[in-house]
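Feature request disguised as a bug: please show the residue count (272) next to 3-methyl-2-oxobutanoate hydroxymethyltransferase in the output. Example input:
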Amino acid sequence: MSTAKKEYKRVTVKSLVDMKASGEKISMLTAYDYTMAKIVDGAGVDVILVGDSASNVMAGHETTLPITLDQMIYHASSVIRAIDRALVVVDLPFGSYQSDPKEALRSAIRIMKESGAHSVKLEGGKEVKESIKRILNAGIPVMGHLGLTPQSIYKFGTYTVRAKEEEEAEQLLKDAKMLERTGCFAIVLEKIPAALAKQVADSVSIPIIGIGAGPYVDGQVLVLHDMLGMTHEFHPRFLRRYLNLYEDMTKAMEQYVSDVKSLDFPNESEQY
Ligand SMILES: Nc1nc(=O)c2c([nH]1)NC[C@@H]1CN(c3ccc(C(=O)N[C@@H](CCC(=O)O)C(=O)O)cc3)CN21
Ligand SMILES: CC(C)C(=O)C(=O)O
Ligand SMILES: [Mg+2]
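Example output, currently without the count:
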């Protein structure tokens, strides 16, 4: 065991389930690189998601579909090097798990082996049950993701709220119970009515982490660059901005340009 330094206790899949049981809410944010992950981990965020939203946020794609398994592993390995406490979950990207359970397992193993991550997340309900089983059988913890599943955007055409109809709501509840039974350690619910999210959270003993799923769940997740106000053209109702970094960063960079042009920078103490 190590000496002085570590006062924190590492977050594990087990501690998340214990947090639900004791009523302590779970905080989760995305990160895709070392420097940001270091700040997120140091701030005491419980879970770091290396989301396939990196496809949008890091690479500038319109959707999450183009990001590759190799690219996710690159992001995840950068994040892992920064972490002392948080549990790290990595999204299986589109195309890396849908064709068959063996492929799903191979992809999950690559993430675990090549990045050092602690768990994986994949989107969907009964369609991905066999894949989840395979991955779990290899000892890899799996987080589910129901409701708005961005990898299926072209099936729906919009990012509107999901499961508003009784039939879809029933299917979602069934899928959540199935994910629990299959052995997932937690489930993300994205953009569904708060009352339905509550019903799901009350019906399963594993933690339900919401994004646009209201307050009656066991934790919340946001995309880091959204909550910092860096992605200034994205304003869904569920997003709370804690900073307006887009403006602050623009001002700082404009000042830098001006200082360079005016020869204000570098000054005497900033040279050798
Ligand atoms: N930056 C970012 N933040 C996210 O939360 C996020 C991503 N990217 N990429 C992957 C998915 C896609 N997500 C989304 C995408 C759209 C809405 C949404 O509510 N769209 C509204 C319009 C929002 C607006 O005003 O711009 C819609 O009705 O389509 C929600 C979650 C969540 N994820
Ligand atoms: C929005 C969260 C849940 C996600 O899946 C991502 O960032 O990719
Ligand atoms: Mg995702």
